[in-house]
Amino acid sequence: xxxxxxxxxxxxxxxxxxxxxxxxxxxxxxxxxxxxxxxxxxxxxxxxxxxxxxxxxxxxxxxxxxxxxxxxxxxxxxxxxxxxxxxxxxxxxxxxxxxxxxxxxxxxxxxxxxxxxxxxxxxxxxxxxxxxxxxxxxxxxxxxxxxxxxxxxxxxxxxxxxxxxxxxxxxxxxxxxxxxxxxxxxxxxxxxxxxxxxxxxxxxxxxxxxxxxxxxxxxxxxxxxxxxxxxxxxxxxxxxxxxxxxxxxxxxxxxxxxxxxxxxxxxxxxxxxxxxxxxxxxxxxxxxxxxxxxxxxxxxxxxxxxxxxxxxx
Length: 313
Prior knowledge:
Layout: E1 3-6, E2 11-12, E3 23-25, E4 29-35, E5 63-69, E6 77-87, E7 90-95, E8 110-115, E9 122-126, E10 131-134, E11 138-144, E12 158-159, E13 162-163, E14 175-179, E15 187-193, E16 210-219, E17 229-234, E18 239-248, H1 251-270, H2 274-284, E19 286-291, E20 298-305
Helix pairs in contact: 1-2
């Protein structure tokens, strides 16, 4: 099967459907994208706190692509299988003035540089105090072009078509489902993270360059995919989950959407009545805040354990 690639310089700063694709692939083929860190190279291993004062915000969160997938049409779903994510050997976390959930309480710039020990799979937060962070790399940005006419869908925000969804569960082995709004889907990725907590970076993740390899497949059988959905296995309990999301500037609206879309999924895939699906969401689903810092939108997920569908014992 063909493996396609996109270079690091083939990146953009908006989900604009008018941008020409850097590659055209057939459904089911694989693409590898080489992506800079979220600062687009403005931060490097020699940077200091003072570097943060000169960041050009309009250059942050670039995404590489787009990749045109043959056969994708509006109303379809693009299935994204995450095959590999290779980070750099370094990363950074920062308190950037004016950015973050508690930006008003932390106005002073502060930069933390990390050494990523990929062989042992962790990075030291503070070696003297014995605090280390397991590395679970993933792409913070994965999305397709929006069907809206406006070209101003900037990359730092999440949308119903994906984007800066910053969801830590989209590691290698996970599958993301995105609603297609334009011909060819036009897929981008970027914003490599070596590790991040659930909730999408109170200030920033361990930001790092990455090379991500993904298989892109057009699905014609998922009309209920209206926001990013994904399937993943959690490392803490080895449980497989299916997750629906709600994306909105209002947290309650996003939460209601996540539940509503899970009901749609349960009815379509498991043959439940809507009232049954709603009750199942209440007794078995886990609501999580996946992304809370990249305005104007929040991403809320409802995660459903798949072991409950194992049949009679």
